[in-house]
Amino acid sequence: MLAQDDHFRPQYHFTPPTNWLNDPNGLVYYQGEYHLLYQYHPESAVWGPMHWGHAVSRDLVNWQHLPIALYPDEYGLIYSGSAVIDWKDSAGFGKEALVAIFTHHQERQESQSLAYSTDRGRTWTKYAGNPVLLPADGQRDFRDPKVFWYSEHGAEHWVLVLAAGEEIQFFASADLIHWQPTGSFGKEHIANFGFWETPDLFKLAVGEGPESRWVLTAGVGKNGIAGTSGMRYFIGDFDGQTFTSEYAPDTVLWVDHGADFYAAQTWNDEPRGLRLMLGWQNNWQYAKVIPTTAWRGVFNLPRRLSLRHTAHGIRLFQQPIAELTALRGPQSHWQNITLLPTQNLLQAVQGDSFEICVEFRINPSVETFGLRVRVGDQQATTIGYHVPRQQILLDRTSSGQTGFDPGFACVHSADLEPIDGIIRLQIFVDRSSVEVFCNDGRVVISDSIFPDADSQGLEVFTQGAETVIKTLDVYALSPASFTQAEK
Ligand code: FRU
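# beta-D-fructofuranose complex -> structure
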C-alpha cells in the first residue's frame, strides 16, 4: 500500500504515486485489464517534460501502478494520445500488439508517433519510423490523437481524430502507420472558445436503441462553462471520413458543468460494449497551483455514457460506474421525511469520503434546498437546488482554501428540470473531490475543494418552507486499493 498520508488525497479516486498528473491517455482494455496511461511528470509536482505514466485495473476501482511506459526522446515530449489492440496485426508489430498513438511535442512542431507492446503493456518499444503523421500545412497545434477501429457500411479501417488549433481533423489508415486526411470539423463551432484539445469520437445507442448517434467530445482552451477550459460534446453522424453535427453552432453542450473535468477520453475495446469515460479532475487555470504537494492531479470517477431523448433533443447522460457500489460501507437510510427549515437530519453523520443518494420532492414555496458537505468551522461546500430558477448549483466559495487562484471561490450552476416533481442526486465526496450526478446523469457537476481535515460535517437543508425527502441514503465508502507492481 502506498502511504495516503495527506488529507486532500482522495481515497477512491486515482491519483499518481507522487508528483504531477494531467490527461488520461491510452485507455484500452485487454485480457482482463483496463489500461490507464496518463500525462505524467515524474520529477516534480508541477507540469514539465511529459511522460506516460501507467496503471492497470480489473474493475476500474482498484489499481496497480506500473512503471512509466513512455519517456521523452529526440522527437519531443510525450503528449496525449490513445491506445488500441491491433487485433489483425495490421502494423506488423506482432500478434495482438498494444499500440500507443501519441503526440511528439516540440516547441515549433507537433507530430504523431507510435509505440507498441507485445507483453500486455509491461514493456514498450517506440516505432523506428516515427513520427508517422505530420501536419500538412505547418499548423503548430496538431495533437492528442484518438484512434479506433471503424467497421460500418462495408468499410473497415483505423480512424484517427486529433485537435489542430481551431479544427478537429480526421484521418484513415489500414495499418496505423500511413494516414490519409479524410475531413475536418469544428471551425464554425469554435467561436470564442479558443482552440480544441483531446477529442474523442464514438457511437452510442439512443435509449435502448436501435436508433443511434455518433458523439464527438473535445476540450476547449477557454471560456468553458465554468469560465476556464472545459469539455464540449456534439451529437451527429460520422461516415468513416468526417463528422457532421445535428445542431447549429448556437447549441453549445457541455459534458460537465463544474470546473474540474477536462481532457476526458473513453476506453477502447470495453468487453461489455459499454462506453466508459475518464476525465482529469482539474483545470488549466489553476492546475499548477492547487494546494497539494507530494502529488498533484486526480482523475474523476469513470462514467458510463448513454444518449437519451429529452424535451430539448437528444442529450448525453453520464452515470458513475456500477463497480463503485463495492466500496459501500455502513449506510444511513431515511425515507418520506418532511424536512423543516430549522432541522438537520444528518447531525450524527460525519465523514470525508462518502456517497449520498437522495430524492427531494419539489415544494414551490421553497427557495433552495440541498446539502452541505465537508462542513467545519466557517466552512462548507453547498450542493443546492434553486426551485424558482430550476437550477442545480455547487457553491465552493467557503469550501476551505480558495486563495491560490482568484477564480476558484465561485458557484457553478446548471439548468435542471424536476422529473415528476422530483430532483434526484447522487453525490460522491472524496476528501478534495465532489461530483454531483443529477437526475440519472442528465447533468453532472465536478469540482475540487480543499477543506480543513476536520471539516467532516454533513447537513441537509431547506429554505423558506419544508421539503419532503422521499429517500436519503448516505454510504461511507472504503478506500480503493492502489498497489505498486512488483519489480
Ligand atoms: C490537455 C493538454 C493536451 C496535451 C497535454 C499536455 O490538457 O493540453 O492538449 O497533449 O495536455 O500535457
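# post-check
The two ends are 15 Å apart (CA to CA).
The chain is about 0% helix and 50% strand.
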